Amino acid sequence: MQMEQAQRREEDYIAVGASGDLKEEQMMVCVVKNQPVLIIRNHHNLYAISGVCSHAYSELIDGELEGDKIYCSLHFACFDIRTGMPLEGPANKPLRTFEVKEDEGKIWVRE
């Protein structure tokens, strides 16, 4: 699992990595306010969701990314990476989503 050191910035955004480090259809984990956040680049967009499955503690970085869906490796719950909404059980609670953007060659997540 790759963890990126966060760097503070104005407007409650923190830098979590370099833009060039995250290629298309790749994921990385960062920590925002002591919580793992999964950053995903998909279809040339960035998404940021809770890094832990809402059903049972399992890190989603170990899951499978298929299009706009991520599957948990523990019980195969499926979530929409754009909204955090569960698409397949056993999870029935959505994942928290975070605002994410690219600026100055870095990826920024709003706390």
TrEMBL record:
Gene3D superfamilies: Rieske [2Fe-2S] iron-sulphur domain
Listed name of the protein: Rieske (2Fe-2S) protein
Family annotation (PROSITE patterns): RIESKE
Span of the signal peptide: none
A family per Pfam: Rieske
A molecular-function term among this protein's GO annotations: oxidoreductase activity, acting on paired donors, with incorporation or reduction of molecular oxygen
Assigned protein family: Belongs to the bacterial ring-hydroxylating dioxygenase ferredoxin component family.
